[in-house]
Each structure stands twice: as structure tokens, then as C-alpha cells.
Amino acid sequence: MNKGTSIASKLVVAVLLMAVIGILGTSAVVEGLAEDGVEWTDGTGAAITHAKPNDATAALFYIQDGALTKLKGGVRVFYTSTVGALAPFSIPAGTVTGGAVQSTTLAADAYDTATPANTPLDAAPTVLVGGSSKTLESHSLTGGTFALISAVTAQTVTVNFNYHFPDSYDSSTERAHVYSDSDSVGEFVAITEVASAGSKTTDAQSTIFVGEVFLSTDTLTPGVADGKVFVGDGDLVTVEYLDSSGGVISTDTITIDDVAATVENQVPADATVTNDTRPRVTFDVTDLGSGLSSSEISLYINGEKVEDATLAFSPINDGFGFLFAQSTEWTETVLGGGFNVKGEGFPFDIAVVATDKAGNMVTSTATITIDTTPPRLDSKPITGSAQNAIVATFHEVLDASSVDADGSDFTVEGANVSSATVNADDGSVVDLVLETNLPTDAKPQVTVTGEILDPAGNAVVIGDVTATNQANDGIEPGVTIDIGLALAVTADAVTVDVTTDEKVSKAKLVVTVWGPAGSPANQNLTMDFTTTLISDASVTIAATDVTGQFGVSVNATDASGNSFDNLEEIADEAFAVGATGSNTITVGNGPIGDADGDGDVDISDVTVTVTGFTATTTAIDASLRTITFTTDGADATEVLVDYSYVKADFVFEVDQTAPTVEFIPDGASDLPDRSPFIRVNFTDDTYPGDAFKAVSLGKADHTPPGGTATSILSSFVTRSDNTYSWTAQNLALGAHKLEVTGTDTAGNSVDATLEFTVKERTVDIALEQGWNLISIPDQAGPDDVNTVFSASEITTVLTYDPRVAGLWTFATRDTAEDTLIPTGGLTEIEASKGYWVESSAPITVTIKIPGITAGAQTLPPAFKLPAGWNLVAVNTPKLTDTVRDADEYFSGLDWSRAYWFNNATKTWESIVPDGDPNAGDAVEATKGYFVYLNKSGTLVP
Description:
- This protein is mainly beta.
- Helix content is about 0%, strand content about 45%.
- β74 (about 895-900) and β75 form a beta hairpin.
- The two termini are about 105 Å apart.
């Protein structure tokens, strides 16, 4: 059996063959085209009945017709001196052997002077010497030579000849037309005279012509004059040979087959695992298109071709059924009749390659495995992730259905097996669960006692030495850690007690206390063992220890190398760094722990990766959770950080920093309210992870203006564990002092003083001599007319109100009593109205405007106004807001115009809406305005 040809080389040969011949198909070889006939052929000249589409290689057809050949005429003129008889003349070269030629001309545009055999003469040339016809002694049609029977002396020799040339007809001559069922327009195709059917070499006398056209599945092909005809599977493609008038002389057709054969019922199937070393192979190959030849169907096993003679087949509908079987085991070498298959569970391929008559190729591959080796425990089992778990690993994947779920296939020394499960991620691993816990240092014997199979059906050998093992200890030691203090200050001793459930040597127990950088408490503790399982140590807090969190990292390794630590590992925490050079980032968890278990927390405990490269770490602060590193990367580089942090149960805090204080209000501005609300906020969150933020208020003394300090601690209300508030009542005007003391959980105290001034709100309004149109920006208090306008220079105050009888209310000064008398019914000044005020001289009046009392049930102002003219104020409860855009201020009103009086010029100034509430005319506080409303509305200042 010759298996020297691999599947890879077979496929390469097939692809190359397709590239050469373009369109594959079979029929009889065309031995000679009939005159006036046309035939579709493959690249070798064999007639075909089917073809596959191909955009890279053209389909070929040949036409036989002597009428398509044409002759051309030529003239060669020699101007000779003396030429002897029988001297050969050369038409191509224009020379005479042994004679003299003064000059020569040639008129024959297609004549091949370099290779005259390509354009042979049709007959002996006609020769005139000096105008007289001469008899030739000899001539050569292919060489283009002749000789005269007589000599020539100084004569003109004119040679007339006809010659053949390779004829061709471009597509515009419309002699060959190709079309398909899918492309009825098709293409007119150029044809060229060639040596023979199957050749593309041009020939001047063959009378055989070749045409080339691409049969394309490109949907853009129809109707495009690009040498392509659009085809679909099953299409009939016709070539017509036409005469010069467009009449059909001859036709030939082929059928398009664009679907490869189908390989079905392949046994063994893909992914089969078997212990049979010479399995029977069966498969069916069918094709509904061009059909199949049994000789074009091959079988490859492990890359080796099966001899065709050993591959049995029988016809089935539209194809063949195949069978291969042999007595030689496939695991034998090729020379020994096998296929070099490994029988130890290594997968290999069984491939069927089939090519239909149109040239469509299909390869069907099944990957199978021959496994003749029984499963065995590949290494010692290990105790698993829990004390009642054991992991048993076999040397190969198991048949999971053969492993009893109740664990009865296994026995474990010292405990009963309650369940056995084949691992979902690794089919060679069986996870055993025991009814009771094993000691953490246990190494029990594990024995396979039941039938366990691999996927090939091989069974483990019961009692074989490979099936009985003493387990390795795979359980990390159990460790209990107790931290003596959660919060410490100077001179406190923080104890660390470590208890293990199995023996751990002193060298294998590393306890690292680490917190803020530079703290004396940062150290590798030397543990004192009171028993083989219990050890302790302590660290005393110095005054120079920095406030912050201290993490206690514990790393314990048992005699079998199983390690415990109390850290949480973080991988690839991402940061965006916006600059090159040195950068400091703060990780999200802490304090950072002793990941490598070497007794300190340093740069070796973290890994910083910048765009795939490890950066240089220069500093770490475990408590602040900061990592400093350098990078040469571009701006906004992504940084990934790997680190570990100490879990919360193993952290203690050192707090040697007093809290800070914030007063609200802070006293920077005068308080217009005599009953203000004052809040005291203490902040003790001075480091990341601070769990002791409470600050108690231990002192609160109030000193009024000119008075003595009095404790008001009982007047403060606790808002939170670090926020307190005082609602003062009827404070005196003037400077006040509030002194407080706060103490945090660690006993750190802070004293702070708030100095504030209580001062009434006032507004100053300048009055010119004569009449002034003014308003008060908020409600005056007191609001009676004599208190607001008490100056003796003010003689009259009046206002306009369309809702009262007479429209005007006013008060005039009684000079004898020096008081304003409400002769016109005006007794109180309102913040919603404008007022005419007459003064006998320029003066400035100061008007008291009290603030809103804390807790008062007060709504923002809103003033209802009737249609028509209204005299209104510019109301601004925030006295610093002195200018408002007119459209914004009157935004709730349908107004058409407003006026104010300019006392300096004694003129009226007009304001109209401009529709823009952010720009335009403005209204000003302390001025009064007459505004005309198209309809009633509410002014909401």
C-alpha cells in the first residue's frame, strides 16, 4: 500500500490544477473540431458538459472554420547591383545571399520579418525584374525566400506575395456570443486563431479559434461589457458561433454546477474516542449537479492517503457509498501497513476529499482519538480547598457517567466519601467530598475501588499500584488572629495573638505590622511561641507614630508548603495618569499589605504596569494607600496596579491628631438676625479608613457684648456624632463670642472660638431737594410712616393705589409737632409700593429692615396688581441685589411701559419691554416705578 502522498500535498496539487485549467469538467477529448463547429473545453482541449463559476480563470471554447482565415498581400522591392543566378533572395530580411543590394523597401504590415514561419507565404511569390516577369528556380513558404534561374544586373526586383497571419476578431465583430439563463444579454467575445484545440498559441494557418469568457457569480456582472457572463447554479450557458450577418452557424452548451458534493454518514464521527486500533471507516458521497467519478474521491487517515484499490465502493442514489477496513492496526508505521497513529489518546484526522465533474472540491474532516490505555491516578491526590475535600487527578479525561456520584468508587483512609464529582473545567479531575473533616495536616491514603472508564471505554485496573495513593496535604493551615486594640495612642501596647491548627515553624510565620510611612511601629514582629500552635507579640505606640491605619499581615506556611495569608488580592486596578515622569496614585483599598511575606511593605509588594511594561515603583504609604512610580508613557496613559490589602478584621488605628472645627456661619459677615442658627461641625476623618470619627462637644461658652462667658452646652442639639447646633434667641446687638471644645474617641481635643457680630439690616436712601420717587427694597421694621421718615426735612409722603378711594394716600408734616400727620390716610410704609417723598433739603435717610427670624413661617413676597397704572417698588430681600433687568423683574406681568422720575434733571424716564430677560433696561432698588398693566397680575420679585 503506497501512502506516500499526504493530504496536504494532495490538496495543493488539486488547487494548482484548478488554477491552470480554470474550468474543470469531463467528456471525451476533442480530437478534431468539425468544420463550422464550436465546443466548450477545459484547458487541455477536452470537451466538457459542466463547469463551475470562476472569476479568476476564464472558460474556453474553440471554433473550427477555414472561412475565418484571411490572406494579406505584401510587396518587397530590391534595388540591386549584380545578383548571380540561383542567389537566394530573402523577403523578410531584404537581402540577397552573394549579391549586392543598394536599398530595399517592404510593404506588409503584418508580415513577421523576425520569424517568417509565423506568417508563411500562401504560394510562390511573383517576381518582376525591370518590369518583366521572371521564373523562380526555388522558393520557401515558411522562410520567405526564393531564387531566380538567371542573374540580375543593376535591376529593380519587385516581389509580390500573399501570406498567412494569425487571424482574430474582436468582440465588436460579434462572431461569438455567450449567454446564460441568468444573463440573457451575455457578452460578445473576441476570438483568436491558435495552433489547436486546447492551445492558446497563435497560429497563422490552423483555422481553429479560441474564445475566453469569465463565468461569474458577481451580481454586478449582467449587462456590463467586461468579458463576464453572470451565472447561477444550474444555469445553461450557451456559446453561439455567428456568421458576419449575425446568423447562428453552430452552438454548444454547458451546465453550471456551483455546489460541491456532500459527504454524509461518516463513521467514525467527529470527536469519537475509541479503543479500537483499526476501526471500520464508512461514508457516503453524493452530488446532484455535475455528478461524481469514484476516482475523484479519496480517503486520508492521519494525513496518509489510503490506496484507492483498498477503498471499496458501491453506487447509491446520486453518488457512492464507501467502506475501508484492514486487519493491520493503524498504530503501525506506514511501512508496516499502518498510519502512524498514536494509541495514547492523541487526536488525529480522518479526511474525505471529493471533487465533482465541475471541479467543486469538498473536504470532510473528523477528528478522532484512539486510546488503548486505562485511566490511572496521574499523581498523588491532594487534600482540597476544605478539610473535607480531596482532589484526585487522573492522567486523562474520564467518562463522567462512569464515576458514581455517591463516591462508592473511592475509599479514603480515615473518612467516608460522601460524593464524587468530575470537575466541570477539567474532566481528568474528580472532586471528593468526605463526611467528616480531616486534620489540616492529614495525608490519607486514597484508593480507587470501583470501575471507572475513560471515553474510549478503557477501565482502571482495580488494585493496581497506580490506583492506590497516599494523599498530599493540600490544605493551608487554619489561622486565628486577634488584635488587642482597635484604636491606640502613645504608650499603648497593641498585642497580636496568632493561633494555628497545625504546627507552623517560627521561620514560616511572618507577622508584619505596617501603617503610615516613617512610623516606628512599622516592623516585622518577633512572635513568641507559648505552644507549638500559639504565638504572640506586641508593638508599643510611640509619640512619633503617624496617625493612620496599621495593617497586620500574617503569612503562615505549613510543613507541606501550603500557605495562609489574611490579605485580599487586587489585580489590574486601573488608573488614568495624565503626565509622564513621577506619578502618585491612591488605590481603592487599604492598608496595603505585605504581599510577599518578607516582613515589610515596600515596592516589591506591588506591581505597576504602564501600557504593558512594568513601571519603576519608588515609594509606598500603606496607610494612605499611595503608590509613587515613574513612567515615560504618553499623557493619559492607562496604568494597571496589582497589590494586596489587609482585611478589615486585622487592622488597628493610631489617632494622635486633634479634630478640626467648622462654624456655620463663620462670623466673617455680620448677622442681621438676632435669633441666628449656629452649627458646629467637627471633622476627624484625617486618614483613609478612619473608623473613629465621633467627636464629643465638651464645652460651649457664650460671651455677649460687654458681658461674661456663660456655658450654653445644654442649649446645643446633637445632629450627628460630630455635628452640633444652637438656636440662639434675642441676642443683643454687637460682638459675641462662642468658645467650644471637642474631643475625639482617642482623647485628642481641639479648642475653637467663633466671634460674630449681630447687626440690624439697614438701607440708605439719598433724597434730593424737592420730590423724590422712591421705594424700600424690603419690609421696614418698624413700618409706621413717622419712624421710617422721621427726618424733619421730609414734609410730605404719598403713594398711588388704584384700589383705594381717591387713588392717593398721603401724610404731611405738622411743623409745630414735627410729626407726619396721616391727613390723607397714610400710616404705614409697605415694601410693595413706591412713594413720592418731598424733602426741603438734600438728605440721606437710613431705614431699618429686620431679617427673617429663624424658624419663622414666612413666604417669599408676591404682590397682586390691578390693570392700569400701578406705583410699585423694586423689592429685593437680598439687599446686595440692587439692579434687576426690567423684563426679568416684571416677568409675571403683562406690562407695556414703566416710568421713573429723575430728580436731578426733573424729568421722566421711560422703560419698555424688550423681550430679553438678560439684557436691556434695568430697574433699581430704592427707586419707585409707575408701571402700566394691560391686565391684572401678580408681581413676584
